[in-house]
Amino acid sequence: MNTNPSMPRRDAIKTIAAGAVAAGAAPSAFAKGANEKIVIGTSGLGGRGRQHARLLAQRQDVSIAYSCDPDLKRAEQSAAEVEAITGKRPRAVQDIRQILEDKDVDAITVATPDHWHAPATILACDAGKHVYVEKPCSHNVREGRLMIEAARKHKRVVQVGTQARNSIHVRRAIELIRAGAIGDILVSKAWNNQKRRDIGHGKLAQPPAHLDYDLWLGPAPFEPFKSNLLHYNWHWHYAYGTGDMGNDGVHDIDIALWGLGVDGQHPESVSAMGSKLYFDDDQEFPDTQNVTFEFAPQGEDGRRKQMIFELRIWTPYAMEGYPNGNAFYGTKGCIILGKNHGYRLYGEQNKLIENVPATGANARNTRIHHEDFLTCIRTDQRPQADIEIGHHGATACHLGNIASRLERTLFFDSKTEQFINDTEANTLLTRSYRDQHWASLA
User: Fold this and answer.
1) The pLDDT of residue 5 is above 50
2) What class has domain 165-203+208-359+394-419?
3) Over pLDDT 90: what percentage of the chain?
């Protein structure tokens, strides 16, 4: 295995892909027999990544071969949890390349920090692996497009972790909208209201001995380790995260786009206000955002549509009864939806027509999402939250964050995935990478 951190990605890809070809990796449907187990390597083993490992370990058609995290304690913890379920302990490793170079691994889960989502997914596709990647699928717009290209080129299944796509009550609400239950839908809303913690002001420090900080940074430019960076607070730093709009809000944004019928297109314009009104700490993203997206005319009536996003991560109360939720406004009524709570259908004059509770908790929806992913591996089909769908949801988050950062209305060309006549904004559609790093997408 080549673990040289300075090896350029193009050379790393050749090394990994060559091994996959030599092993007979097929760029088409799942080559094993119907009764053979799908071998999976899990990576990024915080709370969400370990949940993936535990749920997948409970399946009879899956074998967990690797537990991977730059923090060896986390890798060992997840490996022990899998062993307790299956009686077989996965290999605990820190370097994702050990998974990618193993010809027996069919798929990988990626629940790493956001800045690793695209590099890990692309390298995995290059190595002939299928990918379940957590939301948001990308750290920036350009990376999302590269992920689609890699998945299509290598004919790999790439499922994004927006599991509401497979939630029964969410799908029922979308069906009602499609059937005209609230008339013509013109506006949808997504919101993210919850009480986050103050992360304080970190100090320069030495990384703990069990953490390979260089592997954690990956292709991101080097920055000294700070005491308040890991393991969760990276979400609020431009270099590694996408703020809470990309972290938690992307679930509800994806649903808002889906219900509005624009989940296959980008907005033409985005306007935003975003500030830190509450926290006095090292967070770089806003703790308060109001973002409006406008979409080109849809359908036979040629009407434009809007999607609105609201974020307040300092509020200990719910909006419309749901801390994170959606509203769909039609010409004959509206639907208020909580992805973890259910939905309410209102007709004219606020008449309550249906009040439907949620059909399952997060773990249940994740199990269904896993089932979709694994079935698509075996049948060579695209999953409900295919990478292209995930790219549009993530792009909305990226555009909203950019507009908040620049404090002006931006106009976006869907075909080129570039802002129109705005050089400054276009520089934020991608990122800088560490020079010659093996996972760089430069």
Assistant:
1) no
2) alpha beta
3) 87
Q: What is the mean pLDDT of residues 145-168?
A: 97
Q: Output the CA–CA distances (angstroms, integers) from residue 360 to 167, 342, 363, in the order listed.
A: 8, 9, 8
Non-local (6+) Cβ contacts of 320 within 8 A are 327, 336
Contact 267, 275 (CB under 8 A): no
Domain limits, the chain: 9-163+365-386, 165-203+208-359+394-419
Strands 352-357 and 342-346: antiparallel
Helices (H), 305-346: none
**Does domain 9-163+365-386 correspond to CATH entry 3.30.830.10?**
no
Please tell me the number of Cα atoms within 13 Å of 264 on its side-chain side.
3
Per-residue pLDDT of 158-211, as tens digits, reads 999 999 999 999 999 999 999 999 999 999 999 999 999 999 999 999 999 999
Angstrom distance (rounded) from CA 9 to CA 6: 9
Strands across the sheet containing 334-338? 352-357, 342-346, 334-338, 324-330, 185-193, 303-312, 288-298, 269-275, 410-413, 418-419
